[in-house]
What does this fold into?
Amino acid sequence: MAPHRSKPYDIVLLGATGYTGRFCAGHITSSLPTNLKWAVAGRSYERLSALVEELKSINPDRAQPAIETTTLSLDSVRALAQKTCLILNTVGPYYRYSSPVVQACAETGTHYLDVTGETPWVYEMIQKHHDTAKANGAIIIPEVGLESTPSDLLAWILVTLIRDRLSVGTKEVVASVHEINSQPSGGTLATATSILGHYSLSEFAKSSAPWALSPIPGPKSSHVVPLATRLFGVRKVQHLGTLTTSIGAGPNVATVQRTWGLLGGPKGYGSNFQYHEYMRVKNSLAGAIIHGAIGFFFMAIIIPPVRWLIQMAAHSFYAPGQGASREDTAKESFELRAIAEADQNVPEPRKAMAKFRHDGGIYHLTGIFLAEAAMVILRDDAPAKKLGGGLLTPATLGQALVDRLRNAGVTIECRLMPEK
It folds into this structure.
């Protein structure tokens, strides 16, 4: 991987004055090494200057970031990319604004992280820029947020534990959103309600097909989906409870499947590996109602007039760049649990369990993800570096990212369950 010592900055935070960007800037200021050279970037010098003044109150003794003004044109972001080792991008919706940023980073060999959950856009970026990024040594990792860092890391640590302890692959990982207490930001709402106006249904179908993001063909599933799950979305899993459809599962499944292909496929995760994700509910009735409501929402939002009404309603809740107050977000929490089954040809295959938990603001957590993932790329060893670059995934940052998140206060646990 080519060194970047001659560049003025280690990190440029693009979109620093937005809702997620401010949380990320705060974590960099409070928690990253003081010898880090960084800048905040965006369109408005005045807003960026005001942010820098706010950051002084977090850590008055730290040298404050430089300010870089930029548009989102390809020429402008290319000039920005040439000044830094890595860009953290919080400017969404990504399909609308951020394609030139990815292109510029791929072409200049600049590392890049974002927090999108837009699978069709990620698919598009892989097709267009993976080879260029790899040729130029640029590590480009989308979805380093709630979608899809917890899911990707839990799958990775479970697979790694089973491989290390049992010397076999993993047959299935089932994950469940055990707890989520959070409000979406204006940017999240804007993306969720507008992306169907940009990509066609066929493009959605292509990017969300099984293993669509994997660089190699994925294994065919031998798992038989029960009739109740197919009809009502409900599945019961020992140690996880009653589960139903999770609205965020799509991007997470696609990301884990790409990681499977990037990290050796059959030789790494296993030749029969499958990943499924749900959310925990109190009972089957609640699960069926949630499953039906999610299905109805996606059917309704396809219709342009209905989509417009939903967009107006979402905008009245929080506009892009806005979200819950810091006081309110301090009460938030998120927990993902997962159970993995070893690929053993025995009546009772061994299993492993993992947990990811954060108490505090979910968008603060997203800022932590970005900042700590950046430090892995800049200063640690990780599988991503052995891959040489390209469009990669959060789990390709490996144990170094797990360790940094734990040090930042995130709970990540994994254990092999006793034999029966």
User: Anything to note?
Assistant: The chain has a mean pLDDT of 94. The radius of gyration is 21 Å. The first helix runs from residue 19 to 31.
